[in-house]
Design brief:
Layout (H helix, E strand, L loop, with lengths): L6 H8 L5 E6 L4 H8 L1 E9 L13 H10 L5 H7 L2 E4 L9 H16 L7 E6 L3 H9 L6 E5 L1
Parallel strand pairs: 1-2, 2-3, 4-5
Length: about 150
């Protein structure tokens, strides 16, 4: 739990200092830097969010600036030297890639169906309580996925 433990220390302890192949990071800022350091050779960091840039209910300039300052400076020669890669993913900009996105989605869902990927479901809200679900996530109360049901 990144809120109560130093996940970089824990990852390196669990992998006996080797690091991991893939990190999915939706937190951003300093978390991206720590996630990058957790990669082993040929590892890849997927950055798909920056929730640390908006820690409260309202947007504020200071957390955004702090997140930008703490974000890693990914340098090509450093990446070459360490055999690591980083990808930025913004699903909102992939509407024109529906065929490719569908293939990737099917592969992920296949892994879920086989039990290889097991999503952690924290809480389920009825759709009528979507605002409450959003507030629950924004308040950083969830550990895992928050689902809406019709």
């Amino acid at each position: 739990d990144y809120r109560t433990q130093d996940f970089e220390v824990e990852v390196m302890k669990l992998t006996e200092g080797r690091g991991v192949d893939i990190v999915l990071d939706a937190v951003g800022g300093e978390s991206w830097a720590k996630s990058y350091r957790c990669l082993r050779s040929l590892g890849r960091l997927f950055m798909f969010g920056a929730s640390s840039f908006a820690p409260g209910e309202r947007r504020r300039l200071w957390p955004i600036l702090a997140g930008l300052i703490r974000a890693p400076r990914l340098r090509p020669f450093d990446m070459l030297d360490k055999n690591r890669g980083a990808f930025g993913i913004n699903l909102g900009h992939l509407w024109h890639e529906t065929d490719r996105s569908a293939v990737m989605f099917e592969r992920v869902m296949g892994e879920v169906a086989r039990g290889v990927l097991v999503p952690v479901i924290d809480r389920v809200f009825p759709f009528a309580e979507a605002a409450g679900a959003h507030a629950y996530m924004q308040g950083r109360h969830n550990f895992g996925k928050v689902l809406l049901t019709p």
